[in-house]
Design brief:
Elements: H1 9-18, E1 23-27, E2 30-33, H2 34-51, E3 58-62, H3 67-78, E4 82-85, H4 92-102, E5 106-110, H5 114-120, E6 128-132, H6 140-148, E7 163-165, H7 166-172, E8 188-194, E9 202-207, H8 208-221, E10 232-235, H9 242-253, E11 258-261, H10 267-276, E12 281-284, H11 286-293, E13 308-311, H12 318-328, E14 332-338, E15 342-346, E16 357-361, E17 366-370, E18 384-389, E19 397-398, H13 401-407, E20 408-411, E21 414-425, E22 431-436, E23 440-443, E24 446-449, H14 450-458, E25 463-473, E26 477-486, H15 495-503, E27 514-517, H16 531-546
Parallel strand pairs: 1-11, 3-4, 3-5, 4-8, 5-6, 6-7, 10-11, 10-12, 12-13, 13-14, 26-27
Antiparallel strand pairs: 1-2, 8-9, 9-19, 14-15, 15-16, 16-22, 17-18, 18-21, 20-21, 21-22, 23-24, 25-26
Helix pairs in contact: 1-2, 2-3, 2-7, 4-5, 8-9, 11-12
Length: 547
């Protein structure tokens, strides 16, 4: 395991030295060895340095799962830069905010997203753009084949002095970046964005020491179950999520194992990949497991190679747990955490998991279940809000002091993060999930901020008030519903128009599935929106329909 006083990339370097010819990554049928992966990381780091990226500079990764993501993520860190990974489906208005909030000067994007970057470039802190494609790392014959048969999405790139091609940088620069000394205890390893309670995403940060300790604990918890150079993981979860980053480093790249990167999560392709590459490890949100179980071609694929399956990002329904075990004889283990603190708990691998339990806290994670009003601990077995702390957790958001003050509390000299989830802890400290607070929706494994969508709705010139809630749905966790109050004398504004308004400004997974119009919204005496009342009302309606 890595020392917590060294940069994150050192663990990968050791794996590269120990297993140079083993396959690190498999992408669209092509294999990348550990030796070649390290070479590409160092070449890219050299290129970034020559382009002007300096220690502390932010480099935004606006791309899906592909080798370029990891090459950029780690190459940026090699020269002391800070990667800022965001969803490749974000709209121009979303990335404009994220670029300016992070202060990113460099962005890596797909050719299909280049027009979005061009649209916002002059309004942001950006100085340069690096462009890649889905197939840039593939052999020439595959790229030609993809173009001839129009099977690869592509976009138009406009040449300019500040626009660079990813593949050319790898080709033109040697694997010899300048040596940069950083203090792993202080230097940021990344900035990752999550939903904000004030309508804007907030940047979650971690030092190299924080991320190394996190990766070490994943390695430790899976010791004796995940082998070294023996296992293959299919990476369906997006690499811009910390869940995926923790798993691919802690279980795969630091142990000489292989990861199959899936750029687009299509179920038939996932099933075929598991069969073809004899995948042994699977990570996915509950929605993925449901989609796989409901695929009408499931019986045509051999998934017998799977040894361990994990679910994270949302509550795992008991029904899915039981159906999966019945179909494949494999249990689904759980991973529970958040972008702010990484993994909090994981199901122990030395026993049969209980579907209602999200796991046992990692060794460095100290947890406390409290009354949300008084922050006093509740009796063992009683539900309460979960607080988490660790010496390795960075206890603030990036440039968001007000958000930090709401999310982190000091109790008896320690700073704790409020998870916004209600759980029960048994006498052994194992956690069972109960519910979440009203201002966060879990949709298809994504953590969606109600207030962010409300802010977009209220920007519409005809809307005077908006409330967004999650409506329970067994297939996707929760569906997003917007309840809107229009200005007086407004005519002709429909739910379709407001949905289109949101779609132009939000990533697809944040767009409300329902829009309802009302004359007023419930508010407290001091004018605070009582979102919880509407959420409970929607649950009652759903319960009545089932009777």
């Amino acid at each position: 395991m890595s020392s917590v006083t060294e940069p994150l990339v050192e663990g990968l370097y050791r794996a590269c030295e120990k297993h140079p010819d083993r396959t690190a990554l498999i992408y669209l049928g092509e294999r990348l060895t550990y030796r070649r992966l390290k070479e590409y990381i160092l070449r890219f780091a050299t290129a970034l340095s020559d382009l002007g990226v300096r220690p502390g500079d932010k480099v935004m990764l606006y791309i899906p799962n592909c080798p370029q993501f990891l090459i950029c993520y780690l190459g940026t860190q090699v020269i002391g830069g800070i990667p800022v990974a965001v969803s490749p489906i974000y709209t121009p208005s979303e990335i404009r905010y994220l670029i300016n909030d992070s202060g990113a000067k460099t962005i890596l994007c797909l050719d299909t997203n280049f027009r979005y970057v061009k649209e916002v470039f002059r309004e942001t802190s950006l100085e340069r753009v690096i462009v890649t494609t889905y197939v840039e790392m593939l052999p020439l014959y595959k790229r030609i084949f993809g173009r001839l048969f129009d099977t690869v999405p592509s976009g138009r790139i406009e040449r300019a002095n500040n626009v660079f091609i990813f593949g050319r940088l790898l080709k033109n620069y040697p694997p010899d970046p300048p040596r940069v000394d950083i203090d792993p205890r202080q230097h940021l390893c990344y900035i990752l964005y999550t939903g904000g309670t004030t309508g804007f995403p907030k940047g979650c940060i971690a030092t190299h020491t924080g991320m190394v300790s996190f990766v070490n604990e994943i390695t430790e918890v899976t010791e004796g179950h995940v082998g070294e150079g023996e296992d293959t993981l299919i990476m369906v979860n997006p690499l811009f999520h910390q869940l995926a980053q923790g798993v691919i480093l802690g279980m795969i790249l630091n142990k000489g194992n292989s990861a199959v990167l899936m750029p687009i999560p299509q179920v038939d392709a996932i099933l075929d990949t598991i069969q073809r590459h004899k995948v042994t490890l699977l990570l996915g949100a509950p929605t993925l497991y449901r989609m796989m179980l409901e695929n009408d071609r499931l019986d045509l694929f051999d998934l017998s190679s799977l040894r361990y399956c994990w679910s994270g990002g949302d509550v795992l329904p008991v029904e899915i747990f039981n159906r999966w075990k019945s179909a494949f004889g494999r249990s689904i283990y759980q991973i529970y955490g958040s972008t702010e603190v990484g993994f909090v708990a994981m199901s122990p691998l030395d026993r049969e998991p209980a579907p209602t339990r999200v796991g046992k806290p990692l060794p460095s994670r100290k947890t406390m279940v409290v009354d949300p009003e008084t922050l006093a601990p509740v009796p063992v077995g009683e539900p309460g809000e979960l607080l988490v702390t660790s010496e390795f957790i960075t206890k603030e958001y990036w440039n968001k002091p007000e958000e930090s003050a709401r999310a982190y509390v000091e109790i008896n000299g320690q700073v704790w993060y409020r998870m916004n989830d209600f759980v029960r802890a048994d006498e052994n400290g194992e956690l069972s999930y109960v519910d979440r607070q009203a201002d966060v929706i879990k949709h298809k494994g994504y953590r969606v901020s109600c207030s962010e969508i409300e802010a977009v709705l209220q920007d519409h010139p005809s809307v005077i008030g908006a409330c967004v809630v999650g409506v329970p749905d067994e297939k996707v966790g929760e569906r997003i519903k917007g309840i809107v109050v229009l200005k007086e004398d407004t005519r002709g504004v429909s739910g379709t128009e407001l949905t289109r308004w949101c779609r132009d400004r939000l990533a697809a997974y944040k767009v409300p599935q329902y829009i309802e119009f009302r004359d007023m919204l419930p508010k407290s005496k001091v004018g605070k929106l009582l979102r919880k009342e509407i959420r409970e009302e929607e649950r009652r309606k759903l319960a009545e329909k089932k009777i």
